[in-house]
Design brief:
Low-confidence stretches: 391-416
Distance between the termini: 61 Å
Oligomer: single chain
CATH topology of the largest domain: Rossmann fold
Mean pLDDT: 83
Helix content: 40-55%
Number of strands: 18
Largest sheet: 5 strands, parallel
Number of domains: 4
Radius of gyration: 32 Å
Structural class: alpha/beta
Number of helices: 18
CATH class of the largest domain: Alpha Beta
CATH superfamily of the largest domain: P-loop containing nucleotide triphosphate hydrolases
Shape: elongated
């Protein structure tokens, strides 16, 4: 991130000339002024990133000029030039709003050092301002199912590298949370983490969001602006919903990934960056490539390390864990006291297919927590979910639960209160497989779950020692 535009304000021609030559040698844009009046004209016509300002000018005091600038929208970094390096003078410079100072006569090495400090300061201010508007979530990925355990392993493995990662999955599965975890496990943890929601920015503005723009490059560009790639220099950038960008911008993005350089919109200066790229998509990008909606070369540049985030229906063992976590969180946030979930509430949570994934679950739990009576359990009905637990007493001799008892193999009532949910789930799966003669596809359809979920469940049961012949 460079200090591109410099203004030198000094009434000594040789100082103006020497500074101008030194700064232009660094390929910077430099303007000069010999008085406050001239400096005000330059500022009215252009914006500047840094001003070298003499303390004593023919038409006024440089410190007064700084105070006037502090009330304007453009607040360039100011380095005072003074002939007096006393402590009192330095304190006066800082109180007036100067970033630093140099004492006459100064060397060009001093100028280089103060420019480096100013550049680092400018970068820190801009990145901090951006991150204040787009804070990093530090919520952990919750789950103990095999697919989530594997997901966490992949995050830790790729996190410590600089590899580009493509994170795919349905809406609401937590792709951005996965990206956050990759960043938090990376070597760039103490560097910027900049996010771009490609689907939320209009096509006419997204190039400027990516690469920044120069003043006057288009209608409304009233000032120079750094793009997200420039803000992320040294750190990580997240391109959320990357499939939504146009083919034209895809070509420019490909160049950044290949060459690590770009130009601002309306500019001709090449800016080099060191950025790690993470991308997310809810679409099948390979199919988009086949249809011609996404560049094949960009696809392979982004898909260096693919991570598929599983839908919630493929991790049913995590539903109760997630729901409990959300309930505890919303109880704290809203000052609500509940008695947790009722048995039929848990059964309803586990049985639901969750087309909206974790986001849907979170919304359902928050709404129910707000609606429930103080100290009461949350029921399936309150969450708008169908409960698989019968609420009416079955007819006698049906072999179902009657008056809190269950019929045993001899037809007698066996004592016992409630069948554990995992046992109910296991029985339902075994029954479905028996009725379909072991056809897993048909059994999954009967159970209203995906074939992947059924496979995962069977694998869990095998690991727990259930006889295999009962599951095929």
């Amino acid at each position: 991130m460079a200090l591109d535009r410099i203004l030198v304000v000094d009434d000594t021609p040789i100082i103006r000339k020497s500074l101008e030559e030194r700064l232009r040698g660094k390929r910077l844009s430099v303007s000069t002024a010999g008085s406050i009046a001239e400096a005000e004209k330059r500022l009215a016509a252009n914006s500047f990133d840094l001003i070298f300002l003499d303390m004593e000018l023919p038409d006024g005091d440089g410190r007064v000029f700084i105070e006037r600038m502090s009330h304007s929208e453009a607040k360039p970094i100011v380095v005072m030039i003074t002939a007096n390096g006393s402590v009192e003078t330095v304190v006066e410079c800082m109180r007036s709003g100067a970033f630093d100072y140099v004492t006459k006569p100064f060397s060009m090495t001093q100028i280089d050092l103060v420019m480096k400090k100013a550049s680092e300061f400018q970068r820190a201010v801009k990145v901090t301002d951006f991150l204040n508007r787009d804070s990093i979530s530090r919520r952990e990925i919750i789950g103990k199912s095999p697919v989530v355990v594997r997901l966490k392993e992949l995050i830790q493995r790729v996190g410590r590298t600089n590899a580009t990662v493509m994170i795919s999955g349905e809406n609401g599965t937590g792709k951005e949370l996965v990206a956050n975890e990759i960043f938090l496990n990376s070597q760039r943890l103490n560097k910027p983490f900049i996010k771009v929601n490609c689907a939320a920015i209009s096509e006419t503005l997204i190039e400027s969001e990516f690469f920044g723009h120069e003043k006057g490059s288009f209608t409304g560009a009233t000032d120079q602006r750094d793009g997200r790639f420039e803000l992320a220099d040294g750190g990580t950038i997240l391109l959320d919903e990357i499939s939504e960008i146009s083919l034209g911008l895809q070509a420019k993005l490909l160049r950044v990934l290949q060459e690590r350089e770009f130009e601002r919109v309306g500019g001709n200066k090449t800016i080099k960056v060191d950025v790690r790229v993470l991308a997310t998509t809810n679409r099948d990008l390979f199919k988009a490539v086949q249809k011609g909606d996404f560049r094949e070369d960009l696809y392979y540049r982004l898909n260096v390390f693919p991570i598929q985030v599983p839908p919630l229906r493929d991790r049913t063992g995590d539903v109760e864990l997630l729901a409990t976590h959300f309930l505890e969180r919303f109880s704290r946030e809203h000052g609500i006291k509940t008695a947790g979930f009722s048995p039929d509430g848990i059964a309803g949570l586990v049985a639901h297919n969750w087309p909206g994934n974790v986001r849907e679950l979170q919304n359902v739990v928050e709404r129910a927590a707000i609606l429930t009576e103080e100290g009461a359990p949350i029921t399936a009905d309150l969450m708008g979910l169908a409960s698989p637990i019968p609420t009416s007493a079955p007819s006698a001799g049906s072999g179902q639960v009657t008056n809190g008892s269950a019929a045993n193999s001899n037809g007698n009532a066996a004592s016992g209160d409630v069948v554990p949910l995992h046992e109910m789930e296991k029985r339902a799966i075994i029954q479905a497989l028996q009725q379909t003669n072991g056809n897993r596809t048909q059994a999954a359809e009967m159970l209203q779950i995906s074939i992947r979920t059924l496979r995962n469940k069977l694998a869990e049961y095998r690991e727990s020692g259930v006889e295999l012949e009962t599951l095929t």
